[in-house]
Design a protein that fits this description.
The protein is an alpha+beta fold. It is built from eight helices and 15 strands. It has two domains: about 120 residues, D-amino Acid Aminotransferase, Chain A, domain 1 (2-Layer Sandwich); about 160 residues, D-amino Acid Aminotransferase, subunit A, domain 2 (D-amino Acid Aminotransferase, Chain A, domain 2), CATH 3.20.10.10. Strands 7, 8, 9, 10, 11, 12, 13, 14 and 15 form a nine-stranded mixed β-sheet that branches.
């Protein structure tokens, strides 16, 4: 099955796709992106992802040429052509091509590109036992609520995680207050209350977080949006992360400190099950 790319209307095998050197996405990281999960050949929460994509574009002054409807049609078409049932759709738009000394490019056409690639399921043992994490200082720019291409601090944090045999880096500010994961949102369970940081501009408003917060409220869990330090996080009864690929995933270890009994806790397990039920409700089987 081919992994396919779509760049300004042209479809190629993923690794044959090309964009020009002078694209300001390449030169300056001037662009924003989305990552959607495909279940049974259908992208999940596509409208919510498009809401965020449009918000991100507006924040960095990119005006798309295509409507939301046209973009979704292209996504669906590319997924169908790839024949993948379970996959990742990556969608990106940049400011376009033009001279390096002209950062506003008033006449440039934004470069829209996307790809569909295989997304392996989360390892069974990670699902059951949770994953290892490390704490890394959050030294990103002041606008991490924009899903921008500027992921250098996130990627460096991921490298530190990898070097420590950890699945994710949990970012914390200079006062030790947790912001989010390098590519996920972070939650703590204290007794029976689920706590996560408010979307205060210092974190990305995750689509998985959005869906899960609805589930949490509909099912009567105790829930609070609040701040917590890395030390408080290490003492939580359960810790978990969410993102499009990992869905709801337990954390069993932070910097070598075992969380709870070191396995996926009961509230995390329940939330994962409810999340999958929600996926199955939206996706036609
Ligand atoms: N990243 N926080 C950050 C910094 C992220 O990069 C992501 C997702 C999330 C969770 O968002 P969502 O639930 O919408 O996936 C939170 C994606 C997966 C990525 O960069 O590939």
């Amino acid at each position: 099955m081919p992994e396919l790319a779509w760049v300004n209307g042209e479809i190629t095998d993923l690794y044959d796709a090309k964009v020009p050197f002078m694209d300001h996405g390449y030169l300056f990281g001037y662009g924003v992106y989305e990552a959607l999960k495909v279940y049974n050949g259908q992208p999940f929460s596509v409208e919510e992802h498009m809401d965020r994509f449009e918000r991100s574009m507006k924040e960095i002054r990119i005006k798309p040429e295509l409507s939301r409807k046209e973009t979704i049609e292209i996504i669906n078409d590319l997924v169908a052509k790839s024949e993948y049932q379970d996959a990742l759709v990556y969608l990106q738009i940049t400011r376009g091509v033009g001279p390096r000394n002209n950062p506003s490019l008033p006449k440039a056409k934004p470069t829209l590109s996307m790809f569909v690639a295989y997304l392996p399921p989360i390892d069974d043992s990670f699902r059951q036992n949770g994953v290892k994490t490390v704490i890394v200082k959050d030294d990103r720019w002041a606008h991490p609520h924009i899903k921008s291409l500027n992921l250098l601090p996130n990627i460096l944090a991921k490298q530190i995680a990898e070097e420590n045999d950890a699945f994710e880096a949990i970012l914390a500010d200079k006062d030790g207050i947790v912001t989010e994961g390098a590519s996920s949102n972070v939650y703590a369970v204290f007794k029976d209350t689920i706590v996560t940081r408010p979307t205060d501009g210092r974190i990305l408003s995750g689509i998985t977080r959005l869906v899960l917060c609805k589930i949490i409220q509909q099912n009567g869990f105790n829930y609070k949006e609040d701040y917590f330090t890395t030390e408080q996080l290490k003492e939580a009864d359960e810790v978990f992360i969410t993102n499009t690929g990992a869905e709801v995933l337990a954390v069993s270890d932070i910097d070598g400190t075992k969380i709870g009994n070191g396995l996926c806790g009961p509230i995390t397990k329940k939330l994962y099950d409810l999340f999958i039920q929600e996926v199955n409700r939206e996706i036609r089987r």
